[in-house]
Specification:
TIM Barrel; 36% helix; globular; 10 strands; two-stranded antiparallel sheet; 335 residues; alpha/beta; eight-stranded parallel barrel
């Protein structure tokens, strides 16, 4: 464990830090600004150069916090990612992947992030209400106008990725990534999304590698969650974490502790290192409410887990792993 390592994002020429810093449920809501700035500073100090946010996080405040936190950094030394799709205002057009919303959203994101361009602009879900051609043509205009270098998607199915990739080739824009949930417990991308992405040259930027904190082992079966933890905070994803908060899952996770110890890793480091063993994963997104969490997670960069350890992990968690590719879902109507 030592210096940050870098990987290509998909088959593109752009390198990203193996650990990226994401501010989904922290900046602008859960954590006060000072703490957010301290976490970003810690990320920069450990060599993280890749920062992921979205217009919808904390009702656009997360982008603004990140913009302020990165102000004064050398822009070329950073990879800044954001997303578009979920509602960011009260109007019927303040959402979706329509041309109107994409064109307005990129400008809003750039203003809040205080930058002229983002390195990666991502479709935050698949939009069933807008023709894919319209979405991809709008993305092409964003790229060709210099407001984004690359295009990505998030939580798209293999068939949707294939259709978008075909249009991206025609439009001459680089579609290089998908941002799915992925962890020791949540492996729904392995059967279809990963093979399609490998074939087409997309890399995964995975979120929730620690399963919302469950894989740290801090939640104990039969006991209330620790005060101030994510499972107690409605703003910070308590609803999201519920699927993992069963006694069966929590007691199974406790059995991973000796494996982490044997590998000389914390539970969080083991979880983050595990997703990075998948060669299609370009980066693992970590969030934090305190700088020490950033430093702890970042130490998973460059860690190689041996085959015996990976097999032992699989044997323990097999009964509780979710693998169903149908669990990758986007809303069935406009949000």
């Amino acid at each position: 464990m030592g210096l940050m390592e870098f990987r290509h994002l998909g088959r593109s020429g752009m390198l990203v830090s193996e650990i990226s810093y994401g501010n989904w449920i922290t900046h602008g809501s859960q954590v006060e600004e000072d703490a957010a700035l301290a976490c970003v500073r810690a990320a920069l100090d450990v060599g993280i150069t890749t920062f992921d946010t979205a217009d919808v996080y904390a009702a656009t405040r997360a982008e603004a916090v990140l913009g302020r936190a990165l102000k004064g950094e050398r822009r070329e030394g950073l990879e800044i990612f954001t997303k578009v799709y979920w509602p960011t205002g009260p109007g019927p057009n303040d959402r979706s992947l329509s041309r109107k919303h994409i064109m307005e959203s990129i400008n809003g994101s750039l203003r809040r992030l205080q930058t002229d361009y983002v390195d990666l602009y991502q479709a935050h879900r698949y939009d069933v209400s807008t023709p894919l051609e319209e979405t991809m043509e709008a993305f092409a205009d964003v790229v060709h106008s210099g407001k984004a270098h690359y295009i990505g998607v998030s939580e798209w199915r293999a068939s949707e990725i294939r259709a978008a990739h075909a249009l991206a080739r025609e439009l001459r824009i680089p579609l290089i990534s998908n941002q799915p949930q992925y962890s020791i417990l949540w492996r729904v991308i392995e059967a279809e999304v990963v093979p399609a992405s490998e074939e087409l040259g997309l890399g995964q930027i995975v979120w929730s590698p620690i399963a919302q904190g469950v894989l740290t082992g801090k939640y104990l079966p039969g006991q209330p969650p620790p005060e101030g933890s994510r499972a107690t905070d409605e703003k910070s994803g308590a609803n999201f974490i519920q699927r993992f908060m069963t006694d069966e899952v929590l007691s199974t996770v406790q059995r991973l502790k000796p494996l982490a110890e044997q590998a000389g890793l914390t539970m969080a480091q083991l979880a983050v290192a595990w997703v990075l063993q998948n060669p299609n994963v370009s980066s693992a997104i970590v969030g934090a409410t305190r700088p020490d969490q950033v430093r702890d997670n970042a130490a998973a960069a460059g860690v190689k887990l041996d085959a015996g350890l990976l097999k032992a992990i699989d044997e323990i968690v097999e009964p509780i792993v979710e693998r169903d590719p149908a669990k990758t879902v986007s809303p069935s109507h406009r949000p």
